[in-house]
Design a protein that fits this description.
Blueprint: H1 3-41, H2 51-69, H3 95-104, H4 107-111, H5 119-148, E1 152-153, E2 156-157, H6 159-163, H7 165-183, H8 186-208, H9 212-220, H10 223-253, H11 257-280, H12 285-288, H13 302-307, H14 319-327, H15 332-355, H16 361-389
Antiparallel strand pairs: 1-2
Helix pairs in contact: 1-5, 1-16, 2-7, 3-5, 3-10, 3-16, 5-7, 5-8, 5-10, 7-8, 8-10, 10-11, 11-15, 15-16
Length: 391
């Protein structure tokens, strides 16, 4: 029996019990996030009702609360009466907690003495890491939206739209410093610093596609080089968002290198699959949320790079000219279908790799419940394009 079939059988029998643990962990993360946010926006060292306090509240605490508290539009577990987290805001599972459950055990295992010594200390490290990762992602979003000129995020106005570019930039930068301090564990902090470096490196490469020099080089390059460029970019940007939660947890739990390599490669694949999904939804109204055919200033979209013809494309191909070229290309539909299939395959291979390091079927089920919050949309996108094309 293959890994996928084994997991499917296991989740059919135990998914409810595993889902309760996922919810419990996610509820604990929400509690820790609320406590952390409270410590950021209501420091006891600042005198209340002073001019200084009023200025801080307007220029720092309120933007921080907006940046960290925004949840509209994000995939999550819905509120469920009687379950951990109850009827409050939707819960968002974290891969940080999957790592803890995989390498330290589920509540009944730890409670029966089957867990590793020091599990309470490990949990404390993981709790801090989970908060740091979640807030770090919010910081990245605040800065990324400024650089990309995005005015909407998760169905809400972007932070720089509501608070202005200077305050949004300051907020994102300040949050990065705050979460590095909060993470505390030196190995976790080092992991997060590597993620910050990778993320900003990827953003630099992405922004470069808006320059005349890089555009000309991409237009002249053969397809395989353009795809390699896209993969390097996606691995640094989106891949980092998948690797960061796991890397920080594995660092805190001192997981052996061999399994780190396996999981790092799997998260890279999930990052590529997710970026393909994001690129493709710009051409599929059902998944684009009404925001389709918008960004033609850069050449970081994989669909663009696939359709460019070095012999016929002109260096000035951008904006409306690029839009007309891509939307009128005879191979557009077949390219969308092929890339959607590639995304599904990447996701499948990544999951198979993770299953091989899962310590139990319950751990595999936990992973599925966490990843498939958005992962199932990758499958649905392929199905939608197949139906649209009659394939």
């Amino acid at each position: 029996m293959g890994a996928t079939e084994r997991v499917a059988d296991a989740t059919g029998e135990a998914v409810d019990a595993v889902a309760e643990v996922v919810r419990s962990d996610a509820a604990l993360l929400e509690e820790d996030l609320a406590e952390f946010l409270g410590s950021l926006t209501a420091p006891g060292s600042v005198a209340s009702q002073s001019v200084y306090e009023s200025a801080l509240r307007r220029s720092l605490y309120e933007p921080v609360a907006d940046a960290v508290g925004s949840k509209v539009g994000q995939e999550a577990l819905p509120p469920t009466a009687g379950a951990p987290g109850g009827n409050r805001a939707p819960l968002r599972p974290s891969m940080v907690y999957w790592a803890y459950r995989n390498y330290r055990g589920f509540p009944d295992e730890i409670g029966n003495g089957a867990g590793h010594d020091g599990s309470e200390a490990d949990l404390a490290v993981v709790r801090r890491a989970a908060v740091a990762v979640r807030v770090m992602l919010k910081a990245f979003v605040a800065i990324d939206d400024i650089q990309d000129g995005s005015e909407v995020r998760y169905g809400e106005p972007a932070l720089h739209v509501t608070h202005g570019v200077p305050l949004a930039l300051n907020t994102g930068s300040w949050l990065i410093a705050a979460v590095l301090r909060h993470a505390a564990d030196p190995d976790v902090v080092d992991s997060l610093l590597r993620a910050v470096e990778s993320g900003f490196t990827g953003q630099a490469v992405d922004l470069s596609t808006r320059t005349a020099e890089t555009r000309a080089e991409l237009l002249a390059a053969p397809l395989e080089e353009r795809v390699a460029y896209w993969e390097s970019l996606a691995a640094l940007k989106t891949g980092t968002l998948f690797r960061m939660p796991l890397d920080s947890a594995l660092a805190g739990l001192r997981v052996v290198d061999d399994e780190q390599y396996v999981l790092d490669a799997a998260m890279r694949q999930l990052g590529l699959a997710s970026q393909l999904f994001n690129d493709l939804t710009d051409f599929v109204p059902e998944f684009g949320g009404g925001r389709i055919h918008e960004d033609y200033d850069g050449l970081s979209n994989r669909v663009f790079l696939e359709l460019l013809d070095p012999e016929s494309s002109q260096p000035s191909l951008s904006g409306e000219r690029l839009k007309a070229y891509v939307l009128g290309h005879p191979k557009l539909e077949s390219t969308l279908l092929a890339l959607a299939a590639e995304a599904v395959l990447l996701k499948h291979e990544a999951k198979e790799s993770v299953y091989r390091v899962c310590r139990s079927d319950r751990s595999a089920a936990y992973f599925d419940l966490t990843i498939e919050r958005k992962g199932h949309l990758i499958d649905r996108l392929l199905e939608t394009l197949q139906q649209r094309s009659g394939a």
